[in-house]
Design brief:
Blueprint: E1 5-10, H1 21-29, E2 32-36, H2 40-49, E3 54-55, H3 66-83, E4 86-91, H4 100-111, E5 115-119, H5 124-132, H6 136-139, E6 141-145, H7 146-151, E7 161-165, H8 181-195, E8 200-205, E9 215-220, E10 234-237, H9 247-252, H10 255-264
Parallel strand pairs: 1-4, 1-5, 2-3, 2-4, 6-7
Antiparallel strand pairs: 7-10, 8-9, 8-10
Helix pairs in contact: 3-4
The structure holds S-adenosylmethionine.
Length: about 270
Amino acid sequence: MSRRSLIVVGVGIRAGVDTTPEARELIRGADKVLHVVGDPLAAAWIEGLNPTAESLATMYIGGATREEIYAAMVDKIMVCVRRTRQLCVAFYGHPGVFCYVAHEAMRLARLENVIVRMVPAISAVDWLFADLGVDPGAQGCQSYEATTFLLCGCRFDPYAALLLWQIGAIGDPGWPCSANSQCLELLTEYLKPHYGPHHEVVIYEAAWDPVSDPSITRLPLAELPQAHTTLGSTLFVPPRGPLRIDPQVIKKLDQKVLALLTSRSLK
Ligand SMILES: C[S@@+](CC[C@H](N)C(=O)[O-])C[C@H]1O[C@@H](n2cnc3c(N)ncnc32)[C@H](O)[C@@H]1O
């Protein structure tokens, strides 16, 4: 018997429209499909491609922690991997971006000598770059899970862009979840010395279908604790100002090299 395989794909944020032809064909051709997607239309689209498709989103049971729910999803994937020649698991967005279930299932499947592959997809961050006109290469871009960022007091550079994922669930490990107001306040206090209270931040949610607009709320940092967030919200904090050249490096550089670098690279 040929080796079993686990193929993990993403369907993008707008299932069907964002989905690559390769991911679509992998869903269509699999012996069994499992999926975790945000909305019923996306689920129906996957189920139309492959009648074996089964939703793991039914495992989001009120009262459980998200950690417990994710562990149950991984268990279910592993049960199916052992029974299926080619299992395809589809996630919304990019399957490797803030997706514990995908990474953990792949790790465990590798231990069982299963062929494992992940196919990339359009993530919420790709839409954010497009909708907000942000180039992550311009000044750098830092990306953290919001609760982890707060709890660990992550050190960051305010002159690079900052993305905080799961801002709408900050401080809430349960299900269903919402932003904990005390944690939003603490986060704001943590950020304020670096940016000042008036620095504009953006609560962003990409459109889930081609006929809707993204939700883009710009507000001063000081107003973040009162802001409305959802489970699909990502916080974008733009750099506090332009990058500055390090005088210590300048001292060490040959004058010709310096002239070339300052005329070209900081644009
Ligand atoms: C568990 S992560 C999954 C991310 C997904 N794998 C991706 O590639 O976009 C969930 C977080 O992704 C972000 N997210 C998901 N959908 C989004 C959307 N439509 N717009 C903006 N951010 C979104 C939010 O920060 C949300 O809390």
